[in-house]
Amino acid sequence: MANPDKFFGQIFNEHLNNLHTTMPCEVIYVHEDKPLTDIQPLFQRKTSGEPREYPLIEKVPKLKHVEEINEGDIVFVAFAERALDFVGNRRHDLRDAVIIGVMEVIDDE
After folding, report:
1. Which of 74, 96, 98, 109, CA to CA, is 20 to 30 A from 41?
2. CATH code at position 64
3. Whether the Cβ atoms of residue 38 and residue 28 lie closer than 8 Å to each other
4. CA–CA gap between residue 48 and residue 80 (Å, rounded)
5. Which residues in 42-75 are b (16+ Cβ under 10 Å) and which e?
6. What pLDDT does 48 receive?
7. Which domain, by its residues, includes 77?
8. For the chain, how many structural domains are there in total?
9. Is 74 within a domain?
10. Could you read off the pLDDT of 33-59 as tens digits, one per residue?
11. ∠ CA 47-48-49, rounded to 5°
12. Is residue 109 part of a domain?
């Protein structure tokens, strides 16, 4: 192996690109019959080539203290350490999102 630092650096970066902790998302759809929301992450991901949008995350629950959520709101989302459905061994996955709050837009004026 000619350059182990570069090799292991690429593996490490690939792993970090798939590890999700928190991010802002836009509310796309609020389910009327259940306290669930469909959200679009505002960050983009770049694996190779041009940056791409993350997929829509559907049926995301919210924490109890989070009151009204409307379409177009920007929410802050956390991704659980382990699978919320207790199936499999996924970690910090987009499927395990929980809305932890609604972000207030602050004007700099």
Report:
1. 109
2. 2.40.50.230
3. yes
4. 26
5. eeeeeeeeeeeebeebeebebeeebeebeeebeb
6. 72
7. 4-102
8. 1
9. yes
10. 999 999 999 998 876 778 899 999 999
11. 130
12. no
